[in-house]
Amino acid sequence: PAYMNTVNCISKISFINGEKGILEYRGYPIEQLAEKSTFLECTFLLMYGELPTAKQSTLFSKKIMKNSGFHAGLEPFITAFGTTPTHGNDEHAYGCDVKFYPEANPAYVGADIYKTQKERNKHIYRVIGCAPAIAAACYRHRIGKPIVKPKEDLGYMENFLYMMDKNPSDSNYKPHPKIVKA
Predict the structure, then answer these.
(1) 27: region left, alpha or beta (phi > 0 left; psi from -120 to 50 alpha)
(2) Which of 18, 25, 59, 126 has the greatest number of C-beta atoms within 10 Å?
(3) How far, rounded to the nearest angstrom, does the alpha carbon of residue 94 sit from its chain's CA centroid?
(4) pLDDT tens string for the chain (182 positions)?
(5) How many CA atoms lie within 13 Å of 26's alpha carbon, on the beta-carbon side?
């Protein structure tokens, strides 16, 4: 019954055969990706059609992590939601919308983001990079904890877990590697 509300189409990105238990992204079985690839490697695969080389993976990760924070003006928007439970997606979507102040938003300055791959990538790095920081900030605010700023020197998932779980008094906190991998 749930499939009745799903768009059915031919896709170059994914393949699914529920009867046989097959789910593939760009020809790779989901089990293989889950076991051997990172989140950002899978993101690269979905975007560019192939898994990255080691060099491409390092460069892609650096570009994403360089955009892992949000400007200070966003925090008041997040805290304006209060701490009463709301749907987390509302807060996160709102945070992503306001993250891009006018001069950073190509739509506001008349840029054609589809003109060049370089221009598209710049905005892709921003969205993928800041999404965990916004999600973690919304979560921490909702549970009454101070917002933790991202650390560019951590990996993507490690940074997300760091921002979600860090105790302000623990300056050496790092998420457990097994949890990061999971």
Answers:
(1) left
(2) 126
(3) 15
(4) 566 666 566 788 999 888 899 999 999 999 999 999 999 999 999 999 999 999 999 999 999 999 988 877 777 777 776 665 555 445 444 444 444 444 555 555 556 666 778 878 888 898 899 999 999 998 998 889 999 999 888 999 999 999 999 998 888 899 999 999 88
(5) 14
pTM of the model: 0.76
HSE value, Cβ hemisphere, 13 Å, CA-based, for 71 = 11
Cα 102 from Cα 99, distance rounded (Å) = 9
Tokens for 80?
A: 């304006």
User: Would you list the DSSP string of 119-174?
Assistant: HHHHHHHHHHHHHHHHHHHHHHHHTT-PPPPP-TTS-HHHHHHHHHH--TT-TT--
Q: Which residue has the tokens 């080691």?
A: 54
Q: By the 8 A CB rule, do 142 and 48 touch?
A: no
Please work out, in degrees rounded to the nearest 5, the angle formed at the alpha carbon of residue 59 by the alpha carbons of 40 and 74: 65
Q: What gap in Å lies between CA 121 and CA 131, rounded to an integer?
A: 15
Q: Which residues fall within 8 angstroms of residue 100, CB to CB, at 6 or more apart?
A: 126
